[in-house]
Amino acid sequence: MGDWRGPGRSEQADPLGAGWERHRPAVFGVAYRLLGSVADAEDVTQDVWLRAAGADLRDVGDLQAWLVTVAARRSYDILKSARYRRETYVGPWLPEPLLTGPEASLPVLVDESVSSAMLLIMEELSPPERVAFVLHDVFGLEFGRIAEVLDVSVPGARQLASRARRRVANAKRSTPQASKAERERVLTVFRAAYEAGDLAGLVRLLHPDAVYVTDGGGKASAARKLIHGGERVAEVMVRTGRQWRPGRIEFAEVGGELALVFHREGRVFSVDTVQITDGLISAYRRVINPDKLVRV
Q: In the sheet that 227-228 helps form, which strands lie side by side, from edge to edge?
């Protein structure tokens, strides 16, 4: 994972100005990793800007650490309430797609922690664990700052990060990441089979224990439960493909990984990411909630 700690020197001469533009990706990045929502991360970024614009930053020696801490504190408040919103969410919840390739409108700090698979792993952590893990293991903040955000002792913050790290490591061992070349190969063949309505071809690409997850949020027609089994998933994909009649299917970089963007009637219809195991698709995740596709 990257180390985006701020520069050691003070930025007193221009505490915001150019400093804000330089550190804005980190502010947005910590909020997105904690919340899994582009919309919420943008709101947090705006809140941090307003807070920073009204603060006296002349004595701040590490502007990025200060900004990231403010963003984390605000995100933590939202994250705690978001747990309730997750419980009332209609159907499966998936992270809001974040464009990270040439299509991205703003600079984004990219590493494995913005992938859909990693965000779903972190979703299983408690809010304090998630904050401690992201701030320390991704952004390199010292435990003193993390303890202030979480209102715990320094040893308590260190323990939260350690526990989160173990849980993340265990989950990653069970879901190893495919290489960029393998992902491109699998998705290229998958797109061709999907466009052709080739049931047998899709079955060959899907792991026998594949799972199909669709996030409609109650605002688009989507399965409200997970669909299991490669053959069953393939059948559902062929059937829905005939019903939806999508237009072009494009490749895009989402969360640092190659994904598929489906278009229908002149707009983005879905953004699909996959988990690949032993050269086969073991998890297919489709976001069709229109609220999560606005920024795509």
A: 227-228, 206-215, 280-287, 267-277, 257-264, 249-254
Residues of the chain with CATH 1.20.140.160: 17-174
Q: Are 91 and 214 in contact (CB under 8 A)?
A: yes
Q: CA geometry: angle at 140 spanning 139 and 146, to 5°?
A: 90
Within the chain, all domains assigned CATH 3.10.450.50 are found at: 180-292
d(C-alpha 47, C-alpha 14), whole Å: 20
Q: How far is CA 203 from the centre of its chain?
A: 28
Phi and psi for 111 in degrees, rounded to 5? -155, -170
CB of 222 within 8 A of CB of 288? yes
Residue carrying the six token digits 């919103």: 85
State phi, psi for 280 to the nearest 5 degrees: -120, 155
How much is the pLDDT for 2? 42
Q: Quick check: pTM over 0.85?
A: yes
Pick the CATH number of 180-292 from 1.20.1050.10, 1.20.1250.20, 3.10.450.50, 3.30.1490.20: 3.10.450.50
Percentage of the chain beyond pLDDT 70 is 93
Calpha distance 139→6 (Å, rounded): 9
Q: What average pLDDT does the segment 124-143 reach?
A: 96
Class of domain 17-174: mainly alpha
